[in-house]
């Protein structure tokens, strides 16, 4: 049985998937008048966006769902199930105990979520959970039932990403399963890094006993007592650890690829990510800004700079700016880490450089070069001949090179999350090239090298999945709810925790803040 999906229905579904949770935040966390006003702005921006792209996403363009797609649906389902983050199979990732506690509190507590015990307010990028949390609350579901709802919400997001990718690549039906596997198991060539590390230094076990152990990450070190962690997340790791951020980043990135020549909707696409992932939003906005600069300088002499300013400040972009940015800036500025960043507290470890330039000794520079080469340099070199005149190719490489030098807050999350968007675009270029090779039957030596590298790269997510399953096996359970900090057992809630234990998720000084005083629902 085949099913046809209208292209405009697909893109409407993607916009709704990102917009509806934001509307839940507006109406659930803000005063009624404020929430209604911002909802009207965002809905207006969404309608205008779909109107502006209507000529690109026509009713007569379809995605034909054949039997190969049904095989893919099963693969996507099993892959998502293997992440363990809904408590069904495998082991929870390092951050999942915290995320699960937030999700359960969103179900059990009234919005905005306040904790009487710690006299604090939940302040985190939790927009992704709002729809499944509301549904679970309305249906009075327990933890198991609410996790089913969350899993289904994630599965819908994964299907949307898959359909967007297929719409962009237009693969023949016999290549659909191959594209799915390459997408899910894409990674850097970490195995070569591990071999090199094992030869020069102490080798690490490939499959560890705990899912947080990064034996697969050859570029995770301490150099002169200072952390040197350079990692680009695999699709598996995105789903296993930061799924609340990943879906919005991935969908927005693919929307950008579809409409990359329409600068009058750039900001709308980028700002949709902000409620889900501030750092992910920066990653995609940097790419859009770079592309915009290229378009301006490549424009014909007859096209004035004024016309380009008019495009970037289009009604869609301006409405999205005013609907999303001010309110989420105020909300995020409540967060403890954001307060330290904005006030630049001395000695708190905050700043914009990952490490001072003086820390870049021979070992760190060598590690960074190997990281560059094995994560994306080899791929970039193999694609160079085909993409050397493609501005987006150079822009994503620029991002992947400079992002490791910066941070927001006190950890490595900036590089981890900001690189998701450019890395997905690199994957898109790889898949597009391979489909062209398969269609033309013109296979060169570099294509064989690319296939070999992709095959080796697949070992990384396989190792990550194996580590998760091994952890559950060693603990004699189907799903092991691992808590990395045993002295701070979460018990699926923050209600009995002190604010000092939850600095990344709550604020204990919210009553005098503008957001709480004038915007938040009491």
Alpha-carbon distance between the two ends? 52 Å
Q: Strands of the largest sheet, in order across it?
A: 4-5-11
Shape: globular
Fraction of residues in helix: 55-70%
What's the total number of strands? 11
Can you lay out the helices and strands and say which pair or pack?
Layout: E1 3-6, H1 7-29, H2 32-52, E2 62-65, H3 67-82, E3 90-91, H4 96-108, E4 114-115, E5 120-122, H5 130-138, H6 143-169, H7 176-184, H8 190-200, E6 220-223, E7 226-229, H9 235-241, H10 243-258, H11 266-271, H12 278-297, H13 305-312, H14 315-332, H15 336-343, E8 351-353, H16 362-387, H17 391-402, E9 406-409, H18 413-418, H19 420-440, H20 445-457, H21 459-474, E10 479-480, E11 506-507, H22 514-519
Parallel strand pairs: 3-10
Antiparallel strand pairs: 1-2, 4-5, 5-11, 6-7, 8-9
Helix pairs in contact: 1-2, 1-6, 2-14, 3-6, 3-7, 4-5, 5-6, 6-10, 9-10, 10-12, 10-19, 12-17, 16-17, 16-19, 17-19
